[in-house]
Amino acid sequence: MSPLIKILIAVVIIFVAFGAFASVALIYIGHRVHQKATELGLNRSDDERRASDAEMRRINGCALLPKSEVSAVVHMDIVRAENTGSDPGCAYSVAGDAADMTAKHLGAMHKAELNEQQQNTIQDFAKGILKNGDANQTASEHPGEVPVLAFSIDNNAAQLQMRLNRATLGRLGPIGLVPIPGLGDEAFDAYGAMIFVRKGDKLVRIIYTTCPCVSADVIPLARTIVAGL
Q1: How many CA atoms lie within 13 A of 56 on its CB side?
Q2: CA gap 99, 194 in Å, rounded
Q3: Cα separation, 164 vs 37, whole angstroms
Q4: Is the confidence at residue 157, as pLDDT, over 60?
């Protein structure tokens, strides 16, 4: 094994370990910020809250973003599009497993830095590490499928949530947050794993940690979602 590959494997061990931690941290932080905003219900009258909630109930998340657009980005057939959460949104699944899709996501993030052989080596090694961790994971609701992209829409103190998410997630690393100009009223990508977008009083969260794609591929999908709000 060449010294370069040894170095790359050492890097991917660190990256996978940090990536797994960061993904969990991102989701947890976003969930806690959402909970706090819901509890506070900041500065909205009862009439405003009722009107906003009624508007949210009319949103069909899976209709905002067609399966064909997601399929074109991941270059795979979307076998399922469904919303299983309490907020409007949608999750798009392909046939496969999470370890394979996460390894492909890691490879896509570093595609410009590696040649094809190096990409394959890193993806195979990352896949092996991730598969070894599958024993600790809960069984999938749909065996043989993995969601490659999911989004949710929230109408609780969107501006505050954006500020809190940006401030809190920024502490995980100095270069993890990337502003996305021209998307909604404000938007940023977090660590190549999630995109946060605010349009008016609505916050859109998009997670793509198991997508064989990068943020540049997901941003057009985010524009489609936001255009429908």
Answers
A1: 19
A2: 18
A3: 10
A4: yes
% of the chain at pLDDT higher than 70: 61
CA nearest neighbour of 20 among 122, 130, 170 = 130
Beta-bridged to residue 178, according to DSSP, are 189
Q: What is the largest distance, in Å, between two alpha-carbon atoms of the chain?
A: 67
| List of residues 6+ apart from 19 with CB closer than 8 A | 102, 106, 193, 209
- 3 or 80, higher pLDDT: 80
Sign of CA dihedral 192, 111, 147, 64: positive
3-state SS class at 90 = strand
C-alpha to C-alpha distance for 159 and 168, rounded to whole angstroms: 14
User: Could you read off the pLDDT of 161-196 as tens digits, one per residue?
Assistant: 888 888 877 776 656 789 999 999 999 998 888 899
Task: Give Cα 212 distance to the centre of its chain.
Answer: 12
